[in-house]
Automatic annotation (TrEMBL):
Taxonomic path: Bacteria, Candidatus Portnoyibacteriota
A Pfam cross-reference name: LytR_cpsA_psr
Family per similarity comment: Belongs to the LytR/CpsA/Psr (LCP) family.
Protein name: Cell envelope-related transcriptional attenuator domain-containing protein
Domain Cell envelope-related transcriptional attenuator: 2-104
Matches recorded under PANTHER family: POLYISOPRENYL-TEICHOIC ACID--PEPTIDOGLYCAN TEICHOIC ACID TRANSFERASE TAGU
């Protein structure tokens, strides 16, 4: 999987959390992307008229503060969605992409031919593009002049300040619609994100 391989080629990434991240609902066992030290087994005890039962489940947890994630742990963090929601997952994915960028630029990866070869080899096995090698080289050249400290991002969500609300359609399917039932505020947000 390209994502976890890229993180591992970079030697892992650092993220900072203001509060612990806990996913205790998504994975029945230790997950499907391989081992991660962020998993532990939690035993829950329930008492009913039938007696006492114990159930063990896998819990994925990253503590508050700064954590260094390997590829598997970063992938689980990016995929987790049951204990939060898809909007939170998008924010975590953006956080990880910025962490990958920070790690690559801080280590001088773009100046290290061996690391570039490893990254291109991994990407070549997992990404399809119609860009020529010349176009890719030009894009890498442009990236050297970008101000990575000034990246704007926006997640459209259903928070009270958000631009969407959730409802169901006539068939009972969960859908998102724009607040005010028009797209004016969404169009404005898209126009203004680059200003």
């Amino acid at each position: 999987m390209a994502f976890k391989d890229v993180v591992d080629i970079l030697g892992g990434v650092d993220i900072h959390l203001n509060k612990p991240f806990i996913e205790d609902q998504q994975w029945v066992d230790s997950g499907d992307a391989g081992p991660s030290s962020a998993f532990f087994i939690k035993t829950e005890t329930a008492t009913s008229s039938a007696g006492v039962t114990q159930k063990q489940k896998w819990v994925f947890e990253i503590p508050a503060g700064t954590s260094h994630l390997d590829g598997n742990t970063a992938l689980y963090y990016a995929r987790a969605r049951y204990s939060s929601n898809d909007f939170n997952r998008v924010e975590r994915q953006q956080q990880l992409l910025l962490a990958i960028k920070d790690r690559a630029t801080s280590l001088g990866i773009l100046l290290n031919p061996v690391k570039i070869f490893e990254l291109l080899d991994t990407m070549g096995k997992n990404v399809r593009t119609d860009m020529s090698l010349g176009d890719i080289n030009n894009m890498i050249g442009l990236s050297k002049n970008l101000d990575f400290k000034n990246i704007n991002k926006k997640v459209f969500d259903t928070t009270p300040e958000g631009l969407l609300y959730s409802t169901t359609n006539e068939k009972g399917a969960y859908i998102l619609l724009p607040v005010g039932d028009n797209y004016d505020k969404i169009r404005e947000a898209c126009r203004n994100i680059f200003q």
